[in-house]
Amino acid sequence: MGALADAALAAGGTVTGVIPTGLFDKEVVHTGLTELREVGTMHERKQLMYDLADGFIALPGGLGTLEELAEVTTWSQLGLHAKPVVLLDVDGFWDPLTAQLDRMVMVGLLKPSNRALILRAASPEDAILALTTASPPREEKWITPRER
After folding, report:
1. Each residue of 34-58: pLDDT tens digit?
2. CB 50 within 8 A of CB 24
């Protein structure tokens, strides 16, 4: 994340960091950000990042990235927002996840329209384009009874 922040700043962009107070001792805080906001909990961090964002690009990451991706996509599925969600697929990193999502559709655990909430991009330029052109689908009803 530091390299991404540095690149954005070098290009004249602004970068806002959000960190829970308890993580100051465990993580290296970027001291050159445009703004650093301190919050009390991880939930408050995610909520503030969500509030500040117009859309979401998930870069390759660990459990925290996966958890945040799932939560923000679930919020979209529930109709809490219509902000685009994009996987920046560096070197096929997200192949296993997209295969799992497709499998979930195949076995009936995920609606195709909800699968379509997560877009995929091969380059940063494609990710930005996806953010600016996406129109996340809306499901009016999540569960419908099966016809007999």
Report:
1. 999 999 998 999 999 999 999 999 9
2. no
Reading phi first (left if > 0) and then psi (alpha if -120 to 50, else beta), residue 61 is in beta
Residues 37 and 23: beta-carbon distance below 8 Å? no
Residues 6+ apart with CB under 8 A from 108: none
Pairing of strands 85-88, 16-20: unpaired
Contact 111, 78 (CB under 8 A): no
Amino acid at residue number 6: D
Q: Right CATH number for 54-135 from 2.40.128.270, 3.30.450.40, 3.40.50.450, 3.40.50.720?
A: 3.40.50.450
Residues 6+ apart with CB under 8 A from 1: 30
pLDDT tens digits, residue range 1-10?
788 888 988 9
**Six-digit token pair at 129?**
């384009």
**Residue spans per domain, the chain:** 1-52, 54-135
